[in-house]
Amino acid sequence: MPKQTIALELPKPLESKVPSLCPASIPYNVQHLILTTTQHLLEECCFDFAIKWAPTLVQDKGWDCPEAAELTLWANTLTKLCDKLPAAAIFNDSGIPLDTIFSSICSLRHSAVHRLPTSAQGIRKMIQSAIRLAVTLGDNTRATSFELIETALDCRIKDMQLNKNFLENRLDGQLKMIQEQRAELDRKETDAVATMLREDIENKLLIGSILEASVREAFSLHTGWSSVLKKDTGILRIPDKNGGDAAKHVREGLPKSEDSDNEMQRIDF
Q1: Which of 89, 169, 251, 255 could form a disulfide with 234 if both were Cys (CB 3.0 to 4.6 A apart)?
Q2: What is the rounded (10 degree) CA torsion for 151, 153, 156, 162?
Q3: CB-based burial, 20-52: b 16+ in 10 Å, e otherwise
Q4: How many CA atoms lie within 13 A of 19 on its CB side?
Q5: DSSP 8-state secondary structure symbol assigned to residue 90
Q6: For residue range 63-98, what is the model confidence (pLDDT) as tens digits?
Q7: pLDDT tens string 157-212
Q8: How far apart are CA 199 and CA 201, in angstroms?
Q9: SS3 category, 237
């Protein structure tokens, strides 16, 4: 019995679909507390610096408290003022231009005022900018407070990153196991379909061979009787063109016997 080959589709390679938990972020209420408090402390820092080094400027503008001018305005004002101040007023050994140090805190004020969610790393960079500005203006007390916030942020960021890595790795393992189980079920489904098709073909071939044997047996019976009649009598009655019966001699050329003219044996099928 001929065999038929059925092509099976190979399973596709497994792909992990673990959603990323990055970047790490802190609850917004904590972010808002950090940024608004830092903004307020920086405004106090700028006010104290201006009172010490440019009291006339503060008096002329009518700024009698840190809240009188927003942080961005303080930064722009002090950037222009620093060129007129003695070198002892500024402590900048970072190599960063003063205008960059002042402008870097604008993003802090923008995020705090407009309530913009920010990643933990983004908040950390804002605190670093606050530290540089406080140090530049000689406010080591507030700079120390900002450094404590930065240290706390660093620790919490590391904790969150470790936890995120654990959660992502655990989910990755779970998804791979699910994908392998799904691939195994797909293989079983494919095998089941292929088995059905193969067995259907085998059954068709078996039925065909049985039917062929029956047909040949039926035809061989007819062929066998015809051979016997031809051998024993030599005369068969077959229908003529007009629909009647006619006897046909199959022993033509043989010598006639004495009774051949008087009697002819006919055999009808």
Answers
A1: 251
A2: -90
A3: eeeebbbeeeebeebbeebbebbbbbbbbbbee
A4: 1
A5: -
A6: 999 999 999 999 999 999 988 889 889 998 888 888
A7: 999 999 999 999 999 999 999 999 999 999 999 999 999 999 999 999 999 999 99
A8: 5
A9: strand
